[in-house]
User: Which sequence fits this backbone?
């Protein structure tokens, strides 16, 4: 079973047309639907819905507060390695970019983890480029095992793995997986990923499902917004999330809305999103997927991030460095992308509290570790 | 020459395409001779019945003689208290030569008459393997429904309220969850007392409604059957047409999107220092 | 011989089969289903299914139900 056939069907032109041509009546119906379906989502993502952004925002806010309360989970990424064999044309870690390459040893990763944990954060996202020979499953698992005692929630954002490899990571204490399809448009995907193992669109598309099968507790998907026209990308992301929820109801599904920012390479997004576009995307997703987590990264500015908080966000990063070794300053390389929100954890918490939101560092404790004799 | 357009909305169960989304029952009629008129007035194409020991002193009821030939027979397993009993009744019903549809009912609690989901799932699995078109009567519980789907059910039949109570859609929220989550048809069974309640179930997206007591015990069963047929069709049409938008939306004094400004954030994006 | 039919004992002259029993009970074979010693007897086999003393038979038919 795979999302691939349904995803291919989304790109036959019909869905894009439905989104482009939805009228105001369809938007109003969607805004009032008790459980918006795909047709409603198309209407909410349509140009016609832009005129009803405030109504969308209001309903997204109510829905989010009802399901999540006034809380925001905080996490930070830890870049383990920026070695990469891929040539993603938009990425600062592109193997053709002549940037300093670095990889933390597991003990160095632990040092970084300690520096992060000292700020109070308890959710960590481990990132690597795609260089399995250097930073493969065993390496990531070794880092995870060392970091696990410091972080009750440990996620990975690494290259697409096999189900068995995800199982290895789950056994090492990893409970979350993040994987962006970058673009759901298969043709565009091929041109944006001209070389390296990431060329394999289908393998990547099914990676979140393999992670679900392997027992990941949280799976976070997304499209890199700006690569392709955003409305269909967000629609495809939502349908992908719905597919995973249907087939793996025990997994917490989350969606990220990473918007392309300027970076070290010369490449610029072909389909940039305005702030309004981003708000429409987020609020439409919230109405279609009331229980899904929504993550906003430090790609966005402090002002915008603060304003997005009531509209559907459930998870934000704070105290971010996208450079390998960036938390201990020992071995800083070039970051993957430029950070627009440089606020540290304390500033972030203060900003959330000012808006009446509670920052959450930790919302679960894995019992397996507490069991006597647990590995 | 005129051609009748093929109706494009139908309910397909077990390879049979049904135009009517009302199922009727045969219990509790003051006179079984009313049944043909009830079938005709309601437009129903599926009809339920039960299997019982023949009373040798009185002889067998002539129920089947009253059922129009075109109706799909849906025997139930009422009286079964365990999965094994339900399987046994289903096999007996099929031996009657009236098709291979079966409504599984396993009720071990005779006070509340609520179905046993675990036993129902076991019976469903056995009978689906034997080629029955299985429609299990159930409590509207998501996990039970998924088990039934995995076991091979052709549809699920959640109760709207305890059987025979005519109390309406007391389980509305839970049935909505099943409709939203399941790929199978969700047929609301039990509890529907008035046509408006059947209509509401259909508006919610139910695939069909099964109504027995409310028709059989009405002062005019045939008139009530007609009313249910229309209510179910109206609810279905409303569902397909989409609910109208309610425009009475208060607009807040402090907008959530005020930060976007007049240009909708179209100003040049700031680049991090 | 004596049979148990629908929970009551019932005499029936030998030799007998299911069709003879239904005739004896005044039942139309088309509207009933018969279980002999826990096994369903297909309608086509009524005449070919002999009955033995002590057999337990269940004769069922459809009745009203929802």
Assistant:
């Amino acid at each position: 079973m795979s999302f691939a056939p349904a995803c291919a069907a989304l790109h036959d032109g019909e869905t894009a047309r439905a989104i482009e041509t939805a009228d105001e009546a369809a938007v109003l119906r969607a805004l009032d639907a008790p459980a918006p379906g795909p047709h409603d989502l198309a209407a909410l993502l349509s140009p016609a819905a832009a005129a009803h952004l405030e109504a969308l925002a209001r309903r997204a806010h109510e829905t989010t507060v009802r399901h999540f309360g006034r809380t925001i989970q905080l996490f930070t990424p830890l870049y383990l390695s920026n070695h990469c064999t891929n040539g993603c044309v938009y990425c600062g870690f592109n193997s053709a970019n002549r940037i300093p390459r670095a990889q933390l040893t597991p003990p160095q990763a632990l040092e970084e983890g300690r520096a992060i944990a000292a700020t109070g954060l308890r959710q960590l996202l481990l990132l690597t480029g795609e260089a399995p020979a250097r930073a493969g499953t065993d390496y990531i698992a070794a880092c995870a095992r060392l970091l696990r005692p410091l972080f009750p929630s440990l996620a990975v954002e690494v290259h697409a793995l096999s189900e068995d490899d995800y199982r290895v990571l789950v056994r090492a204490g990893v409970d979350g997986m993040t994987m962006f399809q970058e673009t759901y448009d298969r043709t565009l995907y091929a041109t944006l990923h001209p070389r390296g193992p990431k060329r394999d669109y289908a393998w990547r598309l099914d990676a979140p499902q393999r992670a679900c099968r392997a027992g990941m507790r949280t799976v976070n998907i997304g499209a890199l917004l700006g690569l392709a026209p955003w409305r269909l990308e967000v629609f495809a992301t939502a349908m992908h999330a719905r597919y995973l929820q249907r087939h793996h109801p025990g997994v917490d599904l989350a969606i990220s809305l990473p918007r392309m920012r300027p970076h070290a390479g010369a490449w610029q997004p072909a389909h940039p999103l305005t702030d309004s576009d981003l708000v429409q995307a987020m609020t439409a997703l919230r109405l279609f997927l009331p229980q899904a987590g929504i993550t906003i990264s430090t790609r966005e500015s402090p002002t915008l991030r603060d304003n997005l908080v009531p509209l559907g966000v459930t998870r934000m990063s704070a105290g971010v460095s996208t450079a390998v070794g960036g938390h201990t300053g020992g071995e800083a390389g070039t970051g993957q992308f430029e950070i627009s929100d440089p606020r540290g954890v304390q500033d972030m918490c203060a900003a959330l509290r000012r808006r009446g939101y509670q920052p959450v560092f930790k919302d679960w404790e894995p019992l397996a570790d507490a069991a006597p004799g647990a590995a | 020459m005129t051609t009748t357009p093929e109706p494009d909305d139908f309910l397909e169960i077990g390879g049979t395409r049904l135009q009517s989304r009302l199922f009727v029952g045969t219990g509790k009629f003051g006179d079984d001779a009313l049944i043909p008129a009830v079938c005709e007035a309601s437009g129903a194409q599926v009809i339920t019945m039960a299997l019982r020991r023949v009373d040798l002193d009185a002889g067998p009821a002539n129920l089947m003689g009253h059922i129009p030939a075109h109706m799909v027979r849906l025997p139930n397993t009422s009286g079964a208290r365990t999965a094994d009993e339900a399987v046994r009744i289903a096999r007996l019903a099929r031996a009657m030569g009236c098709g291979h549809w079966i409504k599984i009912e396993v009720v071990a609690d005779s006070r509340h008459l609520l179905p046993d989901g675990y036993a129902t799932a076991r019976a469903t699995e056995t009978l689906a393997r034997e080629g029955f078109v299985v429609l299990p009567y159930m409590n509207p519980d998501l996990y039970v429904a998924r088990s039934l789907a995995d076991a091979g059910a052709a549809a699920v039949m959640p109760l709207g309220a305890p059987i025979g109570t005519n109390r309406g859609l007391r389980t509305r929220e839970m049935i909505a969850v099943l409709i939203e989550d399941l790929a199978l048809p969700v047929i609301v069974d039990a509890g529907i007392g008035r046509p408006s309640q059947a209509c509401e179930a259909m508006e919610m997206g139910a695939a069909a409604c099964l109504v027995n007591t409310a028709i059989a015990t009405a002062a005019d069963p045939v008139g009530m059957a007609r009313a249910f047929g229309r209510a179910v069709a109206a609810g279905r049409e409303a569902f397909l047409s989409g609910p109208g938008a309610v425009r009475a939306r208060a607009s807040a004094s402090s907008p959530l999107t005020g930060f976007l400004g007049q240009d909708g954030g179209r100003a040049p994006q700031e680049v991090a220092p | 011989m004596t049979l148990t039919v629908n929970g009551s004992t019932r005499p029936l002259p030998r030799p007998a089969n299911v069709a003879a029993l239904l005739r004896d009970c005044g039942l139309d074979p088309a509207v009933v289903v018969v279980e002999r010693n826990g096994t369903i007897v297909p309608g086509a086999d009524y005449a070919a299914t002999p009955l033995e003393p002590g057999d337990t038979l269940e004769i069922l038919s459809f009745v009203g139900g929802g």
